[in-house]
Amino acid sequence: MKRILTSVLFVGALFRSITFAGVLAAQTSPKVDPTIAKDQGSRIPFKPDLDLMQAVSRNDKKAVGRLLDADFTWTDSQGRMLTRTQVLEKLPAPALSDESQVSVQERVKSQILIHSAERGNVYVLRVWVKRSAGWRALVYQEVSQLGASPQNDPGTLDCENPCKTVPFQPKTDDEHEVIQAYQQVERAVTAHDSAAWGAHIANEFFAVTSNSNRPLDKRSRMAGLDQQKQAGIAPFPLVSARMFEFGDTMVMTSLQQPDRGKALRVTRIWIKQEGKWLEVLSYQTTIQAAVP
Predict the structure, then answer these.
(1) pLDDT tens digit sequence for 40-84
(2) 144, 169, 185: which is the final residue of a domain?
(3) Ranges assigned E (strand) in 247-290
(4) pTM for the full model?
(5) Boundaries of domain holding 177
(6) How far is CA 31 from each of CA 25, 105, 213, 233, 265, rounded to the nearest angstrom?
(7) Which end of the chain has fewer CB atoms at under 10 Å, N or C?
(8) Beta carbons of 13 and 6 less than 8 angstroms apart
(9) Any domain includes 2
(10) How far is residue 199 from each of residues 150, 191, 213, 279, measured CA to CA in Å?
């Protein structure tokens, strides 16, 4: 059973563009970064992101290197993940080679900017973070969705990992709280408890996965959990994870492997609202080849 499946219709790109952008804008520092368009509806692109993709297109490794964070990773639509060093050895070809005619949203806070683009069944996420030396790309991830509805495959329903234990040692209180929220989300999914799941999910939630044929928002995912009460939902045990904290935003990248089927590379964005960490974004890419 693929973890994030549903047959409920997706509300649409306009909904997530307005609501998710709204929650980030409401918490943005009043000091405007000159590299960011003041009016997010003006379609003026984030300059570092534009510079990065132009440098990739002309195979300018030096220019690309200046814009990548030391912890940068590139995950292509096949689930192959490259480190910063590997990317600079041979620049990969982006799934969306030209984003001038695609649907794009940019959501900004004082220390983090999220760029998402989509065309057809291909979705691209780029996460930018503000370092002392300027804006740097931390995550590039592609997701290519199924062309048809996925088939259910319950697998093993025991949820020791990640429901009870995970192979991750938090370094800060916030990381500990995010891991606890993540485990509560996983327990709710395994139990088909849409209310418990929704308690740890932001209203602006948006997710895409290789294992589905459509994106999900909070309402459609909750409806999907309710519809799956008679079918097993197998857990996706956590193999490894990394966390990057920027104020009240946490970037969590992970590798997850089900008991049957292919592993996933996942990027999740968590935001802290009223003292509680909520998942607001999830990109999940199936690894088509064996994990090295």
Answers:
(1) 444 578 999 999 999 999 999 999 999 999 999 999 999 999 999
(2) 144
(3) 249-256, 264-273, 276-286
(4) 0.85
(5) 149-286
(6) 12, 21, 40, 45, 35
(7) C
(8) no
(9) no
(10) 27, 14, 25, 10
